[in-house]
Amino acid sequence: MTNTTPVDTKNPSITGLHLDPAAETEKIVAAIRKQLRVELKKRGLVLGLSGGVDSSVCAALAARAVGAKNVHALFMPEADSDPESLSLGDLVAKTFGINSEIEDISSTLRAMKCYERRDACIQRLVPEYGKDWKSKIVISNSVQGQGYNIFFLVVEDPDGNQKRLRMPTDVYLGIVAATNMKQRTRKQLEYYHADRLNFAVLGTPNRLEYDQGFFVKNGDGAADIKPIAHLYKTQVYQLARYLDVPEEICSRPPTTDTFSLQQSQEEFYFSLPYKEMDICLFGLNNGVSVDQVAAEAGLTTEQVENAWTGIQSKRKGTAYLHKGPCLVTTIDGFS
Question: What per-residue confidence (pLDDT) applies to 9?
């Protein structure tokens, strides 16, 4: 479905990342209309607006596809959310004339002991961690050296002093399990509103996230339509400019907006900024030489090879996220 510049298989290059945004928009809009009306038989679309470029582009595409009155956006902040995310999400809804409402999920997360469970894991390493402290998870940059990721916990006390500690696996898994409640709670609300309106849920992952498993199963990974999952992040930004997504969003660095400390996506998952990661992924997918990818990305060939190893490792480790439930035997009538 993607309408990138064709890749010359005899001399492939990174120019394939450049879009014809008008043609791509028309293809996506036509696909959304067909999927919604013919396959899903729903009236409109629900999506969560985070203030990021992916959800903003999806909102703009949805409004073009089915009309703004048939799109319902949700803002779902919680105790750790950046307040800017809410204001930017509201800006997007107003820009495209989309109906919207706020569903603050903080009290739900407290009732499920999301924050309490997370803090208990952190306190195994930092016993004094408590109210007014902040935290995030970061990874070592495998592209720069050892070829594998090590997860670290960063905590900040109320005076602004930070510590960085290597986490044992059970602490890491416990923190991630608790924070994944945030994505699953948001998705539950999206489907509530979709059910009451007879709408479908629009998912917002880009290709980098979809390919590398950067989503929560039955959380932000759940959706009825994923209109930009074939687009690299740099292509999403190209589409954002064409669709007149507000400049405040186009110029905002991508973040996870999951932890109380500010955190970039490469700190948490990708090891490289999205532009370089896109080039590495595109090069791997299209048989571009390691030397050319390195030149385009401004990396060494060793760094590119490490990035490719990381991509393959993430694909293998997160393949289960794309799978449905396992059955004992095939059930007639279902593929």
Answer: 34
**For residues 68 and 99, what is the distance between their CA atoms, to the nearest angstrom?**
7
**How many CB atoms are located within 10 Å of the residue 323 CB?**
8
Per-residue exposure over 11-33, b if at least 16 CB sit within 10 Å of its own CB, e if not: ebbbebbebebeebbebbbeebe
272-288 pLDDT, tens digit per residue, is 888 999 999 999 999 99
| Topology adopted by domain 14-322 | Rossmann fold (3.40.50)
The Cα 219–Cα 253 span in angstroms is 23
Q: Is 12 helix (H, G, I), strand (E, B) or coil?
A: coil
Cβ–Cβ < 8 Å for 46, 76? no
CA distance 52 to 46: 16
Domain boundaries, the chain: 14-322
Which residues are paired to 164 by β-bridges? 154
8-state DSSP, 177? H
Which is it for strands 99-102 and 71-75: parallel, antiparallel or unpaired?
A: parallel
Residue 4's pLDDT is 40
